[in-house]
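ESCALATION

Customer reports they have been waiting on this structure for their group meeting. Please prioritize. Original submission:
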Amino acid sequence: EVLCGDVVIVPEDAAFPADLILLHAAGNAQAFISTVMLDGETSLKTRHATGICQVLSNKCGRENGEEWTKAQTVDRLTFPTQVLLQQMTNFVRHLRYPGVEFKFPYPTPVLADVRGTVQPAANTEDALVCSFHEDHFLPRGCILRNTPFVLAVAVYVGDDTKSRLNASTSKLKFSNMQVNLNNCVRGLLLALFSLCALASLVANVDQGGLAAKEEELIKDARNPIIRFFMFCITFYHVVPMSLYVIYEMLKLVLAFQVNSDKQMYDPVRNEMAKARTAEVMEEMGQVNFLFSDKTGTLTANEMVFARCHVGGRDI
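Update from on-call: job pushed to the front of the queue and completed.
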């Protein structure tokens, strides 16, 4: 229900409902967000408000003093407090009068491609124009961490958000053996239909001794379409339908062997291996190389102290 231009307040440990531009963080400080849902990085990233918004926050702090300071230290259990709502409403009122314009381009799927300007609505020569970029951007789906709350404005919503533009429908995975088996069955089906079409053509030509006599056929069998399906029923054994059944049973047996393999037991988590899909089980025996984007994926980020050498001496 968030629309472009709406000002929203997001509490700690909550997800951002849209692509937002940070206006104010609790304590007029930096905000920390977790982008693990987008790029897989577990380290928190810092975000801060634009220059014009920071100036406005300082102005509200001077005008309201103790009330503004009290609103910055809101408790998570009592969020949102009346003082917080009152002070944030006052902050938004300063934004609306005389007004602030946010200018940003059409949405793009690139996460780092965030650019635009923030300036007062009164286009005077001495107007403060600030640009915003990735350091002011709060992507949809990310989580606010270690910050009591943030106040932000929605710039991209719905299908225009970065997460939706980068979303793609996942394709079904098929092993090489499955692909080759499907191609073989397609060839057999093509041969079957060609043979049935040829047999139907010969039966309707009725030349020599190739075709049955007219009086030997039932009335419906004289129709060439009926004859075609009759030949399909006669020659359908060419297609090995039982091969698919045996193939699926073999994949289930292979998955059971993986789940019960003692060499793949994890003593730390006390868990056995889990074959979550049976579609690509036979591909595991064809793996020659294993690539990893970072060492932590293979080492589980565990480092064991081995040796210390200082000044020519082992300690």
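Sent to customer with the following note: The longest strand covers residues 149-156.
Escalation resolved.
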